[in-house]
Predict the 3D structure of the following.
Amino acid sequence: MSNLNLNINVEHITRVEGHGNIVVNMKDGVLEKCILNIVEPPRYFEAMLRGRSWTEAHIITSRICGICSIGHVTASVNATEEALGLKLSEQDTLLRKLILHGETLQSHVLHIYFLVAPDLLRVPSVFPLVATHKDVVLRALRMKKNANYICDELAGRTIHPIAVVPGGYTKLPTVEQLKNIKKMLVDVFIPDAEATLETLKALAPNLPAFERETEYIGLVNDEEYAFYKGDIASTDTGRTSHQNYKAMTNEYIVPHSSSKRCKAKRSSLMVGALARFNLNSKMLHPLATQVAEALGLKAPCYNPFMNNVAQFVEAVHAVEDSLKIIDTLIERGIEDKPAPRDISFNGGGTGVGAVEVPRGILYHEYTYNNKGQITNANCIIPTGQNLSNIEDDMVKLVNEMVKAGKSEDEITFALEMLVRAYDPCISCSVHMLDVKYKY
Amino acid sequence: MSSSSTTKVISVGNPLCGDDGIGPAVIAALHNCPLPDSVSLLNAGIDPLNIVDELINNEKVILIDAAMMKGTPGDVHFLKPYDLKHLSYRSINSTHGFGVAECIDLAIKLGSVSDISLIGVQPENIDAGNQLSDSVSSSIPEIIEIILKEVNR
């Protein structure tokens, strides 16, 4: 094995959002290079926010991503509300959680069915599956559409929500709309999720049995499986306030990536569904707990490929939690109170929004002046936090597969699958302002 | 599936990327045009995957999108799905790699019963910005004429 050479260069990994390349060079059995090369151009969103009004930040940052725009808007309004001392009513908080669940469902369904399932069935995309698994493809499209429907009804648009603003909403849903969403979840989405469970039971054994323990970081709180708000928790160092997010990210740059990297206690950290599951699994609702058991997912889990199973467990939890929230809102009725427009800035201030979006914790921090304008902004995106972890996984995976005598093609396939397992959103993660390449 | 006759006019595109906003601009203009009751308008934004079921179950679907067709900016082409393969069509903005052409293909493979057409408009500029170029903007009356003719066909 010592004379083994590898020269893997996957330019533009498919079925991920944005552009990234896998580069692996092994010479005489020694791994010389094993990197995830991020080649997207910088986005400059933080610079765009400077000088902008408190009423505009969430509209601008929504455009960071077409998949997790609700997550960006939620982190943005949370940061603005904390900075300017705006309080949300319980009703409005419940609605924020419900909208966020809509996005979690949209994103997880898309990732599991359209981006990961082809790997597990060894086909290049979802298209060949139409001939062999037409009912599954139709189910996937139906689930995505129904998740979109939740966002449409509550946030005003499938993506790039318009109803969510600092301090509340421009338009609140009616009880009738909530009843319709409940009916869809009970009559259509849950049966589709039950069928998905059977599909995943058949496919999960195809997930590679690879393990590498790392530092798992996610939001936690004492009340629930945390998505909307909470302290930052690490499996290595415990809990800290969301305002200490910089100590849990420690951004740094590497020459081969236009996206910043993050680390905390170790050389890398993992955020996202698996990290959240490892930190919050005891808070799952009953059906989600059963689904995790049925699919063999147990905390702590150190297999990054199981992130996809954790995504489905979270989808089921999101449905259960949505039904609970909808029942509460229906029982109490909707108080239609518009969001505040004229507020006092009290000399400005700084606030941090930390929200669990499909791919992990998303941080937005804004500083406002006494006119309600942003003077400084910082956004740290989940994919950026995961990139070093993906590379550390790549190194261990390549070495193990070489040792097991696997071919270059098999190693290449496994590496692409590994990157996809993280559901990276590369265009989101790229926001570096000053990159100096060493070579 | 709906039992009554249905026609859906759907735009795809991002109005923040210059001429990629031609589809949404046409839909906005169509709101001021007299249309038969069986016709409904939809702006699908930047994720064509969301419209696959619309491509399956409506009687007639007319899509409007900016399309790189190696033509002169503002050129308007009325295309059928079988044309797409020959025109090396690619959608300009798509998330996770699902473009309009792929979604039409997916709908057909899933057994679409819809009569699908695509109005492709050659863009001049798709850089960031919320303005259409003059060449593309001036094609709107021609596009609307094609749509009105098609919905009344």
